[in-house]
Amino acid sequence: MSITNKGAAAGTAAGTKELPKIFYIQRMQPRGFVLDVYQNNPASNQQVIAYAPHGGTNQQWEFVPAESPGWWYLRTRMGTGFVATLDVSSRNIVMAQPAGGSRDEQLWCLVPTSAPGYWFIQSKLDVSNSVDANVIGITNNASTPDAVAVSLDYKGFENQAWAFAPMYEP
User: Fold this and answer.
1) Domains in the chain: how many in total?
2) 15, 59, 77, 159: which has the fewest C-beta neighbours closer than 10 Å?
């Protein structure tokens, strides 16, 4: 079952917990990086980067169902209500307030890779049969690699593949 299924059942027996709703979004290659809101800055249009995990709320993400079935907002747990947004002009992934009405640059779906447990995070922007799908990838900047939209590459997918490490709330 997909982690984003609306119908995922919560634990009901005594002592069991609900399924997680909060995740670290971990990169496949190189290992050891998660999606992170740069410098824990709550300002609008702040860059999303890949960074070593440290447990901050700027590295914690929620999948929020959108009005369009099968699409999701990726909302930071920083308390701003901001969601991952594809900046159309720069192709960077930044944080912005959801506008409602399912803006395509703020909607994401998961596409499975050939490696079990890893997914492409695909943008709804530019989705068609004639245009390459855009997925979240990372720039080659070694110090603070930026999250950017790149064309999906099934052969070199390791640099575009993500896993989801659940966090359980107390």
Assistant:
1) 1
2) 15
